[in-house]
Amino acid sequence: MNGEYEKRLEDGLKWRRKNPNYIKDYNRQYRKTAHGRKVNWKANKKWRNKNREKIRATDTLRYAIMKGTVKKPNACSICKSKEKMLLHGHHPDYSKPLEVIWVCHKCHRKLHQGLLPLIIGGTTR
Ligand SMILES: [Zn+2]
Ligand SMILES: [Zn+2]
């Protein structure tokens, strides 16, 4: 048995024996990309899930305001500022789209920076 396939296989093995680093590098590169891809994919999935929830919560809230189920107050619930136009509905929990805290943009930013403790229903979040 010395067909074309065996001959090529033999040549390949010879070449690989002569260039062991090529295979090593190749495997290392492959692992690197496969690993990198896996990590990226996980991070993306997390990001997508988080954003999907966020978008859904925002949409549900907007709809509730439109229907009048949720009333937008006219003052920031933290600093009592009456810059009505700048009131944001902050979601402490995106799985509860109608549970929002109405805050001005300044307080909102502070909330996201973790500078203000949140007190909802008696519990600090
Ligand atoms: Zn405020
Ligand atoms: Zn927010």
Report on the structure:
The protein is mainly alpha-helical and 125 residues long. The chain is 57% helix and 8% strand. The chain folds into 2 domains: 1-50, no CATH class; 71-125, no CATH class. It is built from 3 helices and 4 strands; from the N terminus they run ααββαββ. Strand 3 and strand 4 form a beta hairpin. The N and C termini lie far apart (74 Å). The structure holds zinc ion (2 copies). One zinc ion (ZN) is lined by residues 76, 78-79, 81, 103-104, 106-107.
Features:
single chain; 125 residues; mainly alpha; 2 domains; two-stranded antiparallel ribbon; two-stranded antiparallel sheet; 57% helix; 8% strand; rod-shaped; disordered C terminus; binds zinc ion
**Beta fraction:** 5-15%
Instruction: Please count the helical segments.
Output: 3
Query: What characteristic shape results from the CA principal axes?
Result: rod-shaped
User: What's the Cα radius of gyration?
Assistant: 29 Å
Ligand identities: zinc ion
Note the main sheet. 2 strands, antiparallel
Low-confidence stretches: 120-125
